[in-house]
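Sequence dictates fold. Below is an illustrative record:

_____
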Amino acid sequence: ALLGMLLAYDGRVLEGVGACRAGITGDATDLELWQLIGVYEAQLGEDGPNVTRARGMVEYRPSTDEEADQAFRDEHLALAAAAFREALAIEAGDADTATALAHVLEMAAAQEEALAVWARLVEVDPGSAEYRLGLGRVQTALGQRDEALVSYGTALEIDRRLPEPHRVLAAFYEASGDDEHAAELRRKAAYYEWMPPFTETPFSEEAYASVLILAHHTADERGAPTPEQRVAEVERLAGLSTPASTDLLAALCWHHGDHGPLEDRAYDVMETRGRDAEPVLFGLLKQGQHTCTIGHAAHSLARMRAAGLLEALLYLLPGDVRPVFPMDIAGALAE
């Protein structure tokens, strides 16, 4: 298993799969090996032959034969499904493996089989929004509109922050002529899609209006915001000292679309808010999408002397090896 993981990390996924399969030859009941084979085969099936993921970086190459590329994807998705089924034969109640199998079956357009897997998962854990979403997706693909509406509606009852059911339900309402309800659901979808998972501020028209200004990719009939408007909005949020304003400033930093004074100002403001801002700064540290974001959060929390930071920084330190745009965890530790 370890050799397979090292080879996959180095971008040699096919060799990694081969190493795992060699281990299976010695012990066909090794659950971890079957799961790894499934994960790597699924990666190959999703990415295709023209994508290489190595050492935290991704290389894309242009396709020269789309038919051959699709055959490659189909083959590896089938192999992934077979591996996950072998894992389930060893441990039938493993929900993570069953979830992975359901996703692979969806990618392979085996919707009837995926429906059966999602339905079993919902039966085992009816309170899982993830399972309800999976069931709704497959029901939609199979044309089971009424059943899908129930699944998506239940998912929203479980977790109101999910963008996907908002979008799908908006399309349903638009098709039935309820444009006003559809528009509201689309606003909610855009809002929750932009807000990071560690923020807690629920949708409101005021918060959505702020997102329209702060987000680069979001614009309504008023058009895209100007740089001056975005600076003014950050200053407005800086003057509020509310949980919602802190969440919105953290969201701006999480997307890291500004790379400069605007984000620096947001970090400065969050630092002044002390413990009220610590949860979102830890969210940026642990769930940041960019090394710069993680580094900024690390330094802000270090200057704040946040409790529990040392353990988090020591965990991140060994992975801070990029020569360009490092996280500078050592600098945060020194600070």
About this structure: The chain has a mean pLDDT of 92.
